[in-house]
Amino acid sequence: MTDPTQESPFKGKTGLRRLLNATGYSIDGLTAAWRHESAFRQVCLMALVGIVISVFLPFPAWGRGLIIFAHLLSIIVELINSAIEAAVDHTSLEHHVLAKRAKDLGSAAQLISLLNMAAIWGIALLSFV
Question: Is 65 exposed, middle or buried (0-12, 13-18, 19+ CB in 10 A)?
Fold first, then answer.
């Protein structure tokens, strides 16, 4: 049995070096998502269009802030969903009920995120009435 107080041997960097490495890994992740995940590109483009439109419409500050938050949340959820799918596919490409469940749960999270975005857009648009 492993000692629960033992540090991971993979956590060697600290301080500024750790921050720089983490930033590099994050950029690698964003690049990989853009290159390999069409859903990520679609959500990013939808966010770009939605955020630009929200800037030009006379929304109150809270409405614009919620719209921007909803779009960024959807990007975050898509990154997590893509990570789940990649991890499951790495484990095995064979059909398995738990692999399907993991992928379906990630997809459901993105659906809820998109429904949330639609609701926020609706509420913000109703602020004009």
Answer: middle
- Rounded average pLDDT per 10-residue block, the chain, 129 residues: 67 85 96 98 98 94 94 98 96 93 97 98 89
* Predicted TM-score (pTM) of this structure: 0.86
What is the DSSP-derived secondary structure letter of residue 93? S
21 falls within a domain? no
Cβ contact 50:67 at 8 Å: yes
In eight-state DSSP terms, residue 128 is T
Which residue in the list 37, 78, 85, 94 is annotated as catalytic? 78
Q: Do residues 41 and 74 touch, judged by C-beta distance below 8 A?
A: no
- Active-site annotation holds for 7: no
Q: Looking at residue 101, which CATH number applies to its domain?
A: 1.10.287.3610
Counted domains in the chain: 1
Look up the domain containing 45 and give its range.
Answer: 38-126
